[in-house]
Amino acid sequence: MFSGFSYSVQGASHIEKQIVCQDSAAHYYNDTFAIAAVSDGHGSEKHFRSDIGSKIAVDIAIQTIKEFITREKDYIHTIFSNPDKILKQVASNIIYRWSEKVYQHFKENPLTEKEQTLHEKINLEKIVYIYGATLIIAVMTKKFWFALQTGDGACVTITDKNTAEVFVPKDDRLIFNFVTSLCDSDAIGNFRYFFSEINKEKQPPLGIIITSDGIVNSFKEDIFLDFNCKTLNLFTTQENADEEIKKFLPILTEKGSKDDVSIAGIYFKQQTNPWH
Question: What is the CATH number of domain 2-268?
């Protein structure tokens, strides 16, 4: 019933400066649900392991959501009446697990001599800061669909071949390089949520695509939405979609933001709405 994709490409400026890709993307799907996740490591001097933080973030997100979906009896009676409560619990679980994995990685990988210099210079209060990253998650099931987001990037629904919309509420604080993060002291308070049940009156989108700000900043708004429509159409109509997107993303970062770029999507295999 579902399918998906995910890709991360090193930014043109990162290649030039010999900086690792700090984005990560992942997806998972089976016959009953699909998950997409994108994380953008902050990359500034005080977040010098953010590439690792973003990889941990998408792995933990996929694992946590898979476990959540399979425990339907624990939440199904509440999620339709109070989705924010349930999604906040999911986000809290992800933050806790991410922090645990970060501390584990730090314990198993002590600071290098170069990192130690940065660590002392910044005088970090929390180890999680050096792994700082954003996170966007999109989920589709047969009964509902939802999204969670902290930080920048975009989460877009495609309802037909020519109609796309950014649907997670905006955070008006995300200007002048300010970004919310998994490493924030109030990380759970910075998450935004969207939830919709699925029935004959509330029909799901044909697909959801999530992208890091490297992609968002490579387009004007209307062209960005058109890009999402064309991307979903590519994956639902062409067998060589994987090759085409892998060719396009390096060109996009070179001609666009020059930042790392990540994209992940989930969608119905058959692009006719099953609830019609």
Answer: 3.60.40.10
- Of 119, 110, 101, nearest to 54 by C-alpha is 101
Sequential DSSP letters for 154-170: EEEEEEETTEEEE-SPP
In degrees rounded to 5, what are phi and psi of residue 30?
Answer: -140, -160
pTM of the model: 0.95
Reference 3, options 239, 236, 261; nearest CA is 236
Question: SS3 of 221, please?
Answer: helix
- The per-residue b/e assignment along 204-234, b for 16 or more CB within 10 angstroms, e otherwise, is bbbbbbbbbbbbbbbbeeeebbebbbebbbb
Domain segments of the chain: what residues?
A: 2-268
Q: What is the pLDDT of residues 11-31, one digit of tens each?
A: 999 999 999 999 999 999 999
Residues of the chain with pLDDT under 70: 123-125, 272-276
